[in-house]
Write a structure and sequence with these properties.
single chain, alpha+beta, 3-stranded antiparallel beta sheet, 16% strand
């Protein structure tokens, strides 16, 4: 049994007659993975990787009392093959490359959801069986699987014309062309450096065969790697009008390269500091709010909607993805926050230790709220030593 069977074999099978699902926009309800080479570009891949790496650090939590068995499994891993870090990284990458990412549930033999997986279909269309909408996936090797839409999660970016799916990355095509042209210019420049470097006029040779033989002889005797010339090149006066060939391949100047990089970074919401792991403090907080937090919010809402009914959600059951943003502050800022929060009894010892990436203390010590001794409640008439305050 392969991965396809593991994910879809036990899914409830649709019953009824196949029908098209009509959208308000009139667009065909079909998603097709992007056929361009976005992820094959080194610059684009590094931008996508920077965002996916930070998203993979999100902490996924299950809350509420509904489906305790499922929540217990999801607290450890999304499925039997991946960790949450691996799942989130791949989900973010798929979303950036295709602007649409799917999450499907995994059922057991008893019809219970035991996990989730992020497939990468070649195509996906919305169909109806007995009036119920389904997402029908088609994969590279021709396999098909249909899952009821209520049980599927769909995450999107740049959603405009389609009611359910995001737009393609065609807006990035012109920048991708510039990157390809730049790479080709560098490659051709290297090739040109290995071609003719000098031209010369040769006297007393009448035929093309004679010229070819003399060129071959001169190269073998003087220019080959194993030629024993002693570092001295000698040639007769039959060679005249010797000129050096200046190869000047086109290469984008630094300003043009910065423009290309800026286009890619702005499109994916990253910057050079984030890519090179130099971002912290306020700079990282801005990146988090612009690139990581929107993903976390959409992921939390999509997962909650697909796994819990409205009644279960109203009773507090949900899936949330969070991050401790304080961990990305500078050490001086961490120290200030830790001291201020501890002084006022607003953070437990373990919460403070988490900021510093320290292991938690055992209970009940980890849950204790430290506070400075000179503070007391203004409504309390005694201090911590029992002395009455005036």
């Amino acid at each position: 049994m392969g991965l396809f069977d593991f994910i879809f074999k036990k899914a409830p099978k649709p019953r009824g007659t196949y029908e098209k699902f009509k959208l308000l926009t009139g667009y065909e309800p079909r998603f097709t993975s992007y056929s361009g080479s976005v992820y094959e570009s080194e610059l684009v891949r590094s931008a996508i990787n920077a965002r996916a790496t930070q998203i993979s650090k999100l902490r996924v939590e299950a809350q509420g009392a509904a489906k305790p068995g499922l929540q217990a499994k999801l607290r450890h891993a999304p499925n039997a093959f991946q960790t949450w870090s691996q799942f989130l990284y791949r989900l973010s990458t798929i979303l950036d490359v295709n602007n649409t990412a799917f999450i499907v549930p995994i059922w057991d033999e008893f019809g219970q959801i035991t996990g989730v997986y992020a497939p990468l279909p070649e195509r996906c269309e919305i169909v109806q069986y007995s009036g119920t909408p389904y997402l029908r996936y088609e994969f590279q090797w021709g396999q098909h699987a249909a899952v009821e839409m209520d049980f599927c999660g769909v995450m999107t970016k740049y959603q405009y014309k389609h009611d359910f799916f995001g737009e393609s990355n065609a807006a990035l095509d012109s920048t991708m062309d510039l990157i390809e042209i730049q790479n080709q210019g560098i490659k051709e420049g290297v090739k040109n450096s290995a071609t003719y470097r000098f031209v010369a006029q040769l006297s007393n040779f009448a035929t093309a065969e004679d010229l070819a033989q003399e060129r071959q002889r001169f190269t073998e005797k003087n220019l080959m790697r194993d030629a024993n010339g002693g570092g001295l090149l000698l040639f007769p006066n039959t060679y005249s009008n010797i000129q050096q060939v200046q190869a000047k391949p086109f290469v984008a100047d630094p300003a043009q390269m910065e423009l290309i990089k800026s286009n890619v970074f702005e499109y994916f919401g990253v910057n050079e500091d984030v890519i090179q792991n130099r971002s912290f403090g306020d700079a990282w907080a801005a990146f988090y709010e612009g690139a990581v937090e929107p993903f976390a919010i959409q992921f939390s809402e999509v997962m909650t909607k697909m796994l819990f009914t409205l009644r279960e959600q109203s009773q507090g059951s949900r899936i949330i993805a969070t991050a401790n943003r304080l961990q990305y502050m500078s050490n001086a800022d961490k120290l200030n926050v830790s001291a201020q929060m501890a002084d006022r009894g607003l953070m437990t010892r373990n919460e403070i230790r988490e900021i510093w990436n320290m292991s938690p203390l055992p209970e009940p010590y980890g849950s204790q709220l430290p506070i400075r001794g000179e503070y007391y409640n203004v409504e309390d008439k005694t201090d911590e030593e029992g002395n009455e305050n005036s």
